[in-house]
Amino acid sequence: MSEFDQLYREVILDHYKNPRGHGLLDTPDAQAEGQNPLCGDEVTVSLRFDGETIADVGFEGRGCAISQAATSMLTELVVGRSADEVARMPKEELLEEIGIPLTPVRLKCAILGLGVLKVALHKSKGTPLPDEWTQGDDLTIA
Amino acid sequence: MAVTATTGLDVQRIRADFPYLEELLNGKPVAFLDSAASTQKPRQVLDAMRDFYEHRYANVHRGVYRLAERATEGYEGAREKVRAFLNAPSRREVVFTRSATEAINLVAYAWGLDNLGPGDVVVITELEHHSNFVPWQFVANRTGASFRHIPIDDAGELQLDSLDEIAASGKVKVVANNLVSNSLGTINPVERLAAWAHEQGAIMVVDAAQAAPHRPIDVQALGCDFLAISSHKLCGPSGVGALWGKAELLEKMSPFNLGGEMIRSVALDRTSWNELPYKFEAGTPAIAEAYGFGAAIDYLSEIGLDAIERHEHELAAYALGRLAELDWVRVFGPPVERRAGIVSFDVEGIHPHDVAQILDWEGVAVRAGHHCTQPLMARLGVSATTRASFYLYTIPEEIDRLVDGLHKVKAQLG
To answer: Within 10 A of A48 (CB to CB), how many other CB atoms are there?
Structure first.
């Protein structure tokens, strides 16, 4: 397999070109945005709840194929799950879904959407902030 | 390619000085097109530093033994080389710092905090590197001065017709600008800005980190008051840079870092400062790095900054021509006449990170990101660009490989 096929495997390209959950929700219960200061990737995630369950997720963003495809995949992973469970979801679960080897720089691209989603959960449900954001004064909480 | 013949630069001989350029990755040499971030190092610089560490190394300005004298000679000799490189009037005006960033911070803190206040105006430009932007923004906030920027036009050139309005907004006290934009390659009209700054009674601070490696610098001709450069961008080691400042300003300034070396005398109740430039060099400096900085200046000076500038100009012209063939690539920045060897661009519909990733597999090293110029990225309406930058060791074939790689990017992700 070529280096290209390893990183940009078909499922990644599919999510990049046809993102799921694309577009912010009209009347979200929670919303947050974040940037990757290294490369300028941007992601905004909006959520709607049914009680404690995530009923719907929508996102918008600008960034590389990895960051946008990973956020698209994330929307499929979290709908129907409880806010608390998703807030505690290890990044490895998403990385397994992405299923490609990532250098440290690209890892940050891959988990940007997950971090932003957890921030949105934190704001609305008071769940713990993800580790990588707890120091984050460069984080924009919309 | 005609580059060697017309610019008088023997690029093949130069390339042989840089070990990395001879290494193969997947059977191909790497086209290193990221010299604006940091340059590769020639053997001459590495050899000089090794020799210094092996035979001349001790702490400086202290020991009475011969080795310490030789180390001090080497360190102070490097200072003289920086002075000559910048055509500065005096060695007393050359302060070694950790980096160009630290040099600018030195001025922002040591001059800015004592000389700025409400009603004063700090002026920067929309295309500053964060290192010449954030310190001024911070110090303006701390002192209550207002913080204004000179906007750029769509080609990335400063709109100087904004100056009157800025002057009318308060007492302009500082104008800070880079001589060459690290993102767009724009060569800025620093002489004109310096003259305007002085009409306002302001100081002119020049970030020359991106200019000094590529063209002759003359602080007296520029007419500025402070100028910052960095070693690692001009074939020298990282960890050292220099600030040049007018002696009459440096003398009036408070110290920036405090500690050893920067004092004349210390008592329990009071301390007096050392003379220039040592007042600003607290602690043991990067001795061998400063020596290597000097060796890099020797290396470039022997080749000739004029010849390097002409070579890069031809490369920039060649790159702009080749990229113009691709109607799905948008190039940012000014025409080649006012551009250094830097080309930033956007590949339609493909994020710069993905562009750079695929180019890397083709053995082409470029930078993708905001290049520490987020206000500029906002002005251009992008979150990041892909940037190719050239130096004395760059050859047109490497630009051809960039263009071939971009075709591959387009085919795979477009």
So the answer is: 17
